[in-house]
Amino acid sequence: MNKDLILPIVFVGSLAYGCADSATESRPDASVDAAIDAATDASVDEGEDAGMDSGVSGRLVFVSSALQNADFGGIAGADDLCATEASTAGLDGVFKAWLSTRSLSVADRLEHSDEPYMLVDGTVIAVDWDDLVDGALLARLGRDASGQPHTDDVWTGTLATGASYPTDDCQGFTSGSTGHAQCGASTSTTMTWTQAQTPECATRLRLYCIEQQ
Length: 213
Hints:
- There is one protein chain.
- The chain has 213 residues and is an alpha/beta fold.
- It has a single domain (30-211), classed as Mannose-Binding Protein A, Chain A.
- It is built from 6 helices and 7 strands; from the N terminus they run H-H-E-H-E-H-E-E-H-E-H-E-E.
- A hairpin with a 5-residue loop joins strand 3 and strand 4.
């Protein structure tokens, strides 16, 4: 399994910033964003070959198009957001958020599939559940349910193993004001795709959504 470089994206202001400990870091300009896209697009070739060229089917995975603070109404609210975005994009199946609280982890609440996990364009990011939680992905998980690319970071509450981040979770992801929670970098294929930093709950990030059946 190839491992590419970690390419963090950092945003400032009232909208969003990346998986960082403060909102004081600078945002890369358009030329830097373009360079990041060019570099990371090259890194998904292996995943695309494994998916589209072989015609393999699997569990669809996407990043939400919506950006918001950590108040999702808990896990149920995050799952509803994923289901709504999947339905809007015309995707069949049941979709749930890759989101853990301190009391309930994704490893305990999501299906452990033997099928590949793949983006809507056919790019395989992991060959099965064990591959998904081994600390590395085949390709970055940065496309939404319609296939549009995104480089924003993502609320996860989840370690690379699928276990819950144990320290803080924005009151079970019901608070958008006080505290911190674990986030991941959608531009990464190392463990930091889900386990990067712990920004403040007011930070506006995305969610990962995973097909269950």
